[in-house]
Amino acid sequence: MSGGQGGNGAGTGQRLNLGTKVFIGAVAAAVLGVAWTVGGHLGRGPAPTRLERAEPATLALGGKVYDEKCASCHGAKLEGEANWREKKPSGRMPAPPHDDSGHTWHHPDAVLFGITKEGLVPGKYAPPGYQSDMPGFASALSDEEIWAVLAFIASQWSERAREHQASVTRQAGAR
Fold first, then answer.
1. CA atoms of 147 and 82, how far apart (whole Å)
2. Nearest-CA neighbor of 170 among 36, 40, 49?
3. Cβ contact 81:87 at 8 Å
4. Backbone angles phi, psi at 93, to 5 degrees
């Protein structure tokens, strides 16, 4: 069809050149790609957070890392040290539980990652002057292992705790 307004897509009587068609196709593909990457969750609620979308292999790695690096302080069943809300005689705080009885699930993904990687840094991840035995694991664990152990811990929470933590993560703007 030539001339007129029918079938040319521009409504001006001009045909789109190849460069314009390629550009429009690339933009459309990018938009569809973003929609697909968000997990096809359009119309099905918010996209899952990083901890929510962990694969079984990631959870298995996280369980192994937890057993090797975390359980000695936080307990084999994520129960933490006794009296974890009270200072030890040394003035330092005991290791808290990572199960529903603790507060781990109150923090967004990025904060949990930072605490695990850098340690419990007062003024950044804890109140100024806060003392804990929580070391940073940057030299002992890869980022992949840190995310895996956090996903493993999150997988042990109740549905209510997981939903709350995902909401906190979304509110913090981290995925």
1. 26
2. 49
3. no
4. -85, 140
